[in-house]
Amino acid sequence: MGVLCIIKKSNFKVIYMCIKWRAAGLLLAAGLLLAVDELISVTAVAYHSQRQAIQQSDGTISGNMARAIVGIVVLFCVWGRHPAEAAWSEWKPAGNDYYNDHDDSHLTCKAQVQALKAQVASLQYQLSLAGGLPGPGPYPGGCTWKMVFKIVAGVPGSSYALWRSRGGYNDQVHPSLTGHSHYRSPDLDRWSSLHVTKVKVSLVTQHQHTRDIIFNAHGSNRDNWFSKDRLISSPWTDLKTAPANFFSIQGDDRHGRRFFINRSYGGCAHDWGWLIVLDPGAECPWEKRVKSRGNNQILFSRKANSVQFEQGISKHLVSTHVVSSSSSLSSSVVVVVPLLLLLLLLLLLVVVVVVVVVAVVVEVVEVAVVVVVAVVIVVVVTVVVVVVTVVVILVEVVVVVVVVIVVVVVVVVVVLVVVVVVVVLVVVVVVVVVVVVIVVVNEIT
User: Fold this and answer.
1) What sections of the protein cross the membrane (predicted)?
2) Residues 6+ apart with CB under 8 A from 92
3) How do residues 293-333 score in pLDDT, each as one tens digit?
4) Residue 175: exposed, middle, or buried by beta-carbon count in 10 A (0-12, 13-18, 19+)?
């Protein structure tokens, strides 16, 4: 979920009046709020670090790159009217210039305290997501953040085109996380009049808050707030210090990579970055595999730093439905190659059994050698079958699959040739023995 924060200038008048009349109380409340915020930050970082370490040790994290599936959304939200301002205007007896009514200034202080309590409730909810205190239940929308944009992975259309358009999109319904469509608020068209101070981009996986990226939006426009020099905080420790060749909403036009935070290009297999939303159009194999599940796929690093996209996605693609959906070629390879290798193994086992039976029947000295050779052949081919199957399913790189298939075929052919030679030698020995026996018998008789 992404959030964009706005504080109107008039709010500072409210804060000023509150400090004037109840300075001690307001400072105490603000101090408590900052303490809770700091506690949440420390607890969340410690919790997520511990959780990642446990998951990695248990093998539950299948890669460093988180894949976007249906249910992952990216949202941008705006802080429009501060709760203190709303409370003040609600209690004001009459008139428009309610900030000049100093007789009701105690109501301003009360409203400000209520606003601080609302923010504490919001922070408590965020802490509950990090596994700390029990939260208040549903996401406390309306007290601090206002959603203005949402992207749902797999939903048709261009996320960037929607961002650049005008007017609302699906704004007749509540823009909750549970929806299955994009959302655009008409507030985006009034950016300059909203006096935006912060933007929070939140990544949500299967309705669970996963990552937050917060930007300073003072004096920004609708597009330039998403930049490295405005970054306040992020889940990646190297984002502020590492170089970045792309850090913008527009991203890489040529490849359709939007909301793109990228470290470096080095060819498809060596692209490093932190966050990407894939618009229609793909060039690299890792993009094509991911986009086979639909447009607007959202990828972000699960590590504490940047990740190599190709490697991260390949490690994460371990379930059969993800592998088979990447392309018709790779899905057929995943099915055909193990079956082919299994048939070759069965054929080889049959040949080995025949060789052993022949050797036993004729009672030749070479039977032990034949058995040893047969066992070695079975072991070698079995190992090759296992390795190739694992490579095909986990790596899912067509070039590697083709190379492995060629190697396996060569090995199998060589093994079959050896087996045939052994069989021929056994047959020759048997024939020679039989001929010698017949000659000896004839001479004796």
Assistant:
1) 333-362, 369-402, 408-441
2) 98, 101, 104, 107
3) 777 788 888 778 888 887 766 554 322 222 222 223 333 44
4) buried
Q: Can you give the pTM of this predicted structure? A: 0.44
Rounded CA gap, 197 and 4, in Å? 8
- Report the DSSP beta bridge partners of residue 149: 76, 184
pLDDT band for position 228 (cuts 50, 70, 90): very high
Rounded Cα distance, 53 and 56, in Å = 5
Which value, in Å, is the radius of gyration of the alpha carbons in the chain? Answer: 34
Interatomic CA distance for residues 28 and 120, integer angstroms: 13
Phi, psi at 244, each rounded to 5°: -145, 125
Token pair 């603000």: residue = 30
Do residues 259 and 159 lie in contact, with contact meaning Cβ atoms separated by under 8 Å? Answer: yes
Tell whether 131 and 165 lie within a shared domain.
no
- Nearest of 393, 412, 397, 400 to residue 341 by alpha carbon: 412
Encoding tokens for residue 418? Answer: 């050896």
Structure-block tokens of residue 309: 């996209």
Q: Looking up tokens 């109380």, which residue turns up?
A: 25
- The crossing angle, in degrees rounded to 10, of helices 105-129 and 83-91 is 140
Question: Would residue 365 count as lying in a domain?
Answer: yes
- Verify that 169 and 191 share a domain, yes or no: yes
**Cβ distance 306 to 246 under 8 Å?**
no
Looking at the fold, whether 298 and 364 belong to one and the same domain comes out as: no
Which is it for strands 307-308 and 231-233: parallel, antiparallel or unpaired? unpaired
Expressed as residue numbers, the domain containing 349 is 328-444
State the Cα–Cα distance between residues 259 and 251, nearest whole angstrom: 6
